[in-house]
């Protein structure tokens, strides 16, 4: 059984027990998060698809950690003009574990 949820403007395919990294959530470590924007639920017998979301369906998860991703270098350069800019960025994320799809 798996579900497709939407959080932070992105869609994730999750099943019970999976650990995934989502856009940063404003919750503490160890707290429970409920995602109510469920787009699809698939179990062995049938598939439910929302228009755009399923009503009455929820996915609950537990927050494991808050961290930052790998550093990305943004380098701007214009030839023959002596223009160079180097910037780094680390995107924050929240690591969650999916506990229940209901």
- Mean model confidence by pLDDT: 97
Report helical residue fraction: under 10%
Q: In total, how many domains does the architecture comprise?
A: 1
- Determine the strand fraction and express it as a percent band: over 45%
What global shape is seen? elongated
Number of strands: 10
Which strand order spans the largest sheet, edge to edge or round the barrel?
2-1-5-6
What's the order of the H and E elements?
EEEEEEEEEE
Structural class: mainly beta
Cα-to-Cα separation, first versus last residue: 11 Å
Biggest sheet details: 4 strands, antiparallel
Cα-atom radius of gyration: 19 Å
Total count of helical runs of at least 4 residues = 0
The stretches of 5 or more residues where confidence is low (pLDDT under 50) are none
In short:
This protein is mostly beta strands. It has strands at 2-7, 10-15, 19-23, 32-35, 38-42, 47-49, 59-68, 72-78, 83-89, 92-101. The protein has one domain.
């Amino acid at each position: 059984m798996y579900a497709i949820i939407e959080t932070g403007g992105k869609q994730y395919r999750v099943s019970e027990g999976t650990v995934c990294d989502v856009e940063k959530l404003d919750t503490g470590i160890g707290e429970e998060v409920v995602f109510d924007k469920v787009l699809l639920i698939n179990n062995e017998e049938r598939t439910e698809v929302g228009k755009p979301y399923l009503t009455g369906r929820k996915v609950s998860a537990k927050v494991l950690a808050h961290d930052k991703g790998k550093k990305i270098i943004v380098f701007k350069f214009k030839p023959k003009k002596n223009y160079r800019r180097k910037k780094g960025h680390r995107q924050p994320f929240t690591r969650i574990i999916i506990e229940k799809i209901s």
